Amino acid sequence: MASQTTSGKAFEYALLIAAYERANDGREARVLKKDGSYETAKRSFESCSSDAQEKYSKAANVAVGHIAALEPRLENLVSGNDKVVVSVQPDQTGKDGDIRDVLVTRPGSGWEIGLSAKNQNSAVKHSRLSDKINFGREWFGVDCSPQYMGAVRKIFGYVRDMVNESKKDDGHVLLWNEIQGKADKFYVPVLDTFEDEMKRFMQKGGNIPPLLLEYLLGKKDFYKIMKYDKSVIIQGYNMNGTLNMPSNSTSAQSKIPSLKSPSRIVDIERVGKNRMIVMLNHGWQISFRIHNASSRAEPSLKFDVRLEGMPPDLYSHTERW
Fold first, then answer.
1. What secondary structure does DSSP assign to 205-245, as a single string?
2. How far out from the chain centre does Cα 206 lie?
3. Last residue of a domain, one of 120, 151, 170
4. Alpha-carbon distance 200 to 255, whole Å?
5. Beta-carbon neighbour count of residue 12 at 10 Å?
6. Model confidence over 82-124: pLDDT tens digits?
7. Does residue 244 belong to any structural domain of this protein?
């Protein structure tokens, strides 16, 4: 079975090819950018079974076919010498605030749309916490408080001491499942500390909520495409109003509403020992589920971050086959 990374890259490749084949305005003025990112995605696709390849391609064609009705410029000429360029984004762009995986652009007119590929999942981020990470600086450009950094140093320092002590015993590698009550010892206090710090950030003013959403969704509008076994879900994140543009001769068949960025955090709710939901205005709700990313015990934990709730006017369409 393909790894999550390989399957994700394989679906990116399927979307790339589907977009390239669809982007045909009759002049064949289109370019498939074949760089290192393209080759990585292609290798991932080709490493999958023929059955898996067929499913990726089917989902991609269905999704891009629907997007073509929303984005007339994909298939229709915008200016006299305009051409379509289709490419895979380098992984680094995600770290730089652009979470789109596949780009379709018309450089001559400045038009572009981005596709975010998700295979069997809807997560938006997998963020890590440790005593070495100042998440406030990474997420908001504002340093975490001394109280937070001191608290996480104490918690993760305890983990580090346990790991080092275990190594003294014939080099034994300590596993998380060998630690009794790991949730109470580590998940709960780390989440408590994170919640306290988020509340401190809330008091800093109204710029934190939109920066939080920007960290999770990036700075560019995009279509999120989630592939499941018998369906594909297409969502339009139109924060800046750049999606759904008409061509010279054709308008979109459906409207993609512009979404309002949150301006305040309404509440924070805890769910069990390992999950926290941040509720913001305009319908945004963000779930932070903390877990150990590795089977080996280590002085860090990871968040699985998902949109638990979304604005009621978010464009979402499901295609089944």
1. -TTHHHHHHHHHH-SS-EEEEEE-SSEEEEEEE-SSS-SS-
2. 24
3. 120
4. 39
5. 28
6. 789 999 999 887 667 789 999 999 988 889 999 999 988 888 8
7. no
